[in-house]
Amino acid sequence: MTCNLLVAYYHPPVERIFKALADHTRRALLDSLFMDDGQTLNGLCTGREMSRQAASKHLRILEEAGLIVSHRTGREKLHYLNPVPIREIGERWISKYAERKAGAMTALKKALEEDMTEDPGKPVHIYETFIKASPERVWEALTTPEFTKRYFHATHVASQWRVGAPVTLNYTDGQPAVEGVLLKVDRPRTLSFTWRALYDETYSEEKPSRVTFRIEPNGEVSKLTVVHDEFEADSKLYPVISKGWSEILCSLKSLLETGEPLPIAGNQ
After folding, report:
1. What is the pLDDT of residue 108?
2. CATH number of the domain bearing residue 236
3. Residues 96 and 130 occupy one common structural domain
4. Mean residue pLDDT across the chain
5. Is residue 263 part of a domain?
6. What is the pTM of this model?
7. Nearest Cα residue to 78 out of 125, 31, 118, 110
8. Would you say 55 and 44 are in contact if contact means Cβ atoms under 8 Å apart?
9. Taking every pair of C-alpha atoms in the chain, what is the biggest distance, in angstroms?
10. Residues 254 and 133 placed together within one structural domain of the fold
11. Last residue of a domain, one of 74, 93, 120
12. What percent of the chain has pLDDT over 90?
């Protein structure tokens, strides 16, 4: 991702996203990932009259548009839906011209904004966005309560930011919404901690999952990848948390690039 492709990659233009969605084969691949997220190339080709070469070309276009994210697990390369670009289109463009309750966003957009998959056998969510800010600035936004209260549903992050230390996201009254333990702190590249949701008794009873933030510099922009994994196989949190993460990341991007978070419930 070189400087020559800066605009295309830090925030894929609307044209690239719509071009990727215009092809029925690519839409079918997205539908397949929605039904069964985290598939290999062979899995996506199964049952389709499509060669591996053709499928690879379509997947590359979808990945360049930011609509999917690939992730290697051992020798396998898995492909996951990334709802963030669709969310950004909805928040930054569509909502300008129509009230939320009046506009139907298309079945695909609704699917991507809801849980990324209904298959609990592969409990992993992966998100990716490009932000016009330095890695240090993105790190600051992730680890500073003055930042998180503006985009992270009004919660204040608190930690000593060393491995083994506790980390919490607290409501304004001091009650924790999320608690965890820091697993990796490599400023300003990697931040990882366990995640126990306390805002709902059903979720708080589950074994803690794990959230990892990876920040990569790319000229004047930073690539932020978020991996939320290690859910229990029958986790009730897993199928509902995707929409929350896409809202948070889009609002974080807006805050760092414009000075204002998105007007999402909980940010005010």
Report:
1. 44
2. 3.30.530.20
3. no
4. 82
5. no
6. 0.65
7. 125
8. yes
9. 57
10. yes
11. 120
12. 45
* Burial class of residue 62 (count of CB atoms within 10 Å of its CB; 0-12, 13-18, 19+): buried
Say if 267 falls within a structural domain: no
Extract the tokens encoding 214.
């990876």
Across 119-207, the runs of DSSP E, i.e. the strands, are 125-131, 156-159, 166-170, 176-186, 190-197
Show Cβ contacts of residue 181 under 8 Å, excluding neighbours closer than 6 positions.
Answer: 164, 165, 166, 167, 193, 194
Residue 106 three-state SS? coil
CB atoms within 10 A of CB 240: 15
How many other CB atoms sit within 10 Å of the CB of residue 250? Answer: 26
Domain tally for the chain?
Answer: 2
Q: What is the pLDDT of residues 125-161, one digit of tens each?
A: 899 999 999 999 999 999 999 999 999 999 999 999 9
Question: Could you tell me the residue range of the domain that residue 177 belongs to?
Answer: 126-258
Q: How far is CA 54 from CA 45, 48, 61, in A?
A: 9, 11, 11
Q: Are residues 15 and 138 in the same domain?
A: no
Domain boundary among 88, 120, 152: 120
